Amino acid sequence: MSGEVYRVLPAAKKRAKIDDEKYLKWYKQSVKDPEKFWGKHGKRIDWFKPYTKVKNTSFEGDVSIKWFEDGVTNVAYNCIDRHLKKRGDQVAIIWEGDNPYDDKKITYNELYDQVCRLANVMKKNGVKKGDRVTIYMPMIPEAAYAMLACARIGAVHSIVFGGFSPEALAGRIVGCESTFLITADEGLRGGKTIPLKANADKAIEIASKGGVDVKSTLVVRRTAAKVDWNEERDIWYHDAVAAARGECAPAKMKAEDPLFILYTSGSTGQPKGVLHTTGGYLVYASMTHEYVFDYHDGDIYWCTADVGWVTGHSYIIYGPLANGATTLMFEGVPNYPSPSRFWDVCDKHNVNIFYTAPTAIRALMGAGDDHVKKASLKSLRTLGSVGEPINPEAWEWYYNTVGNKKSPIVDTWWQTETGGILITPLPGATDLKPGSATRPFFGVQPQLVDNEGEVLEGAVEGNLCIVNSWPGQMRTVYGDHERFIQTYFSTYKGKYFTGDGCRRDEDGYYWITGRVDDVINVSGHRMGTAEVESALVAHGKVSEAAVVGYPHDVKGQGIYCYVTLMEGEEGDDALRKELVAHVRSDIGPIASPDKIQFAPGLPKTRSGKIMRRILRKIAEDDFGSLGDTSTLADPAVVDDLIENRQNKK
Ligand code: WTA
């Protein structure tokens, strides 16, 4: 592990809102008296009716999490209306298209108009407070309008990443019984089109077999491709919005009214609907956005995520807009038309704060320094990283070559479930160590425990738990509170268990080591190995499958599949291709297996449990340390697995 320490840069400290002294003081207050601390900071958003209760949370028993519960507010009002007087003509969203010649600027006044119109269209088509609206869209401004229009009328959005298949989309539509869908004719990424409307049509058909009928589909024209049209169900977005009124009063929302559902992968079963609510979420997203990135009025801020993931929710839309920022929304990919795209966009729009994922950093590092060096990048001031552990080599390259040694890197650890960043450096306060997410944000109390739940003190490695609530925390699994309790609060009683392993060093810095459960992290995208397994066994020739992650130079982790075929089937490259195509169509391209090993048998205990530890080791080509295999029902299968491994060094 790199021992290098990068001291706080004097310039960063000088301009920062929080220096080390203030961090330590605020942090102490925030854990000593959360009521008082959050009672004060809750006021950073506007409330129609102020709260009198701040915190009412319990990680025990039925687990109940409520923040600011008697306050009344509206998220869209906070992200738009309250800024109009001061910054109506300021750019709210810079949109950079897939094609470098395609861009657009949307002011807060324009955002207000667009969101109100869309909100009225949704109301006219029967969407009411509490209804679930599915959004399946490319990275275009209409995606932001759709989120904010839902928030404005109190509808609950569920965004499904545009890279997911019709089957995956259908599952999420049925999961939250959503009968209103917003999509586009096609998406455009890296010069390639994605048939969103056609996928949506298929998904609607599948969902209807699952008992949920989508009543209306609002379709944005993005590429003007010809699409099938169902007169009864489909509505052209632009026609409807043009005819709607540009005023729509924001709904009065209680702090604990739902804001959105976002499906995410876990270690078992199908993805679960993480539910976030209104008041606490917005307070936390906006506060972390301001302090973690040391955001100042007038800064140009760019987070490269997709709105289909939580990072896009909290740090492209809600956090920045609540702070009145100019947020950049990018439709494309890092290497199109060339690997200098990110840096060209930074120069073109004078980006000050840049937030991306280690997988992109590694890929661009691999493309060579010339792509970076020809850009000026002089506007950059703060760099961020999110989604997976960043290896020290990538960190150093980001710091030296992209940041030119003058921009601190904030390595932000958090999860879909946490709503916002929990462990992170602050640019003007925290000395940096490459690869460490460093210290907890205000109000966050991490704890490391061993497998038996014993609390570990000092410099040590263990399982990462959080022992007290913070306002951005998820409130439940949509429609299944029991699963919420089981998944997060039953492993270690009374604590929120993150599923991550973590080391704490002698300075109290946290180093996330990765998932300790059956979740893998592929290019910063969370994937449940159980989901890939269930897609594989749904194929007629597959009898059994086990999926594990293995280290991958660019993606962080790759997907390694062990597949046992039905009696009489032959495993060859043609079948490998067929299985890859099958998983892609079942879940989406992000779940494409990287390696498939055909195995006559899988290592199992005598009670029939697959020994994943062994499969992981073989996938890592580390079979020298397989550990004890004597408890296996048939130890001989291991020899075959090693012999035919697909990852030979
Ligand atoms: C991992 C993304 C190390 C972690 C915001 C977590 C990280 C999972 C970091 C959540 C980081 C996220 N360092 N690991 N800075 N950020 N992770 O829900 O394993 O898509 O549990 O949320 O990503 O992924 P999710």
Give a description of the structure.
The chain has 649 residues and is an alpha/beta fold. Among the domains are: 147 residues, 3-Layer(aba) Sandwich (Rossmann fold), CATH 3.40.50.980; 122 residues, GMP Synthetase, Chain A, domain 3. Strands 12-11-8-6-7-14-15-24 form an eight-stranded mixed sheet, sandwiched between helices. The chain has a seven-stranded mixed sheet with strand order 5-4-17-16-18-19-20, sandwiched between helices. The protein has a five-stranded antiparallel sheet with strand order 22-21-23-25-26. A hairpin with a 7-residue loop joins strand 14 and strand 15. Helix 2 packs across helix 3 and helix 6 packs across helix 7. The longest helix has 17 residues. The site of 5'-O-[(S)-ethoxy(hydroxy)phosphoryl]adenosine has 24 residues, from helix 12, strand 19, strand 20, strand 25 and strand 26.
Search tags:
seven-stranded mixed sheet; 31 strands; 23% strand; 32% helix; GMP Synthetase, Chain A, domain 3; Rossmann fold; binds 5'-O-[(S)-ethoxy(hydroxy)phosphoryl]adenosine; 649 residues; eight-stranded mixed sheet; alpha/beta
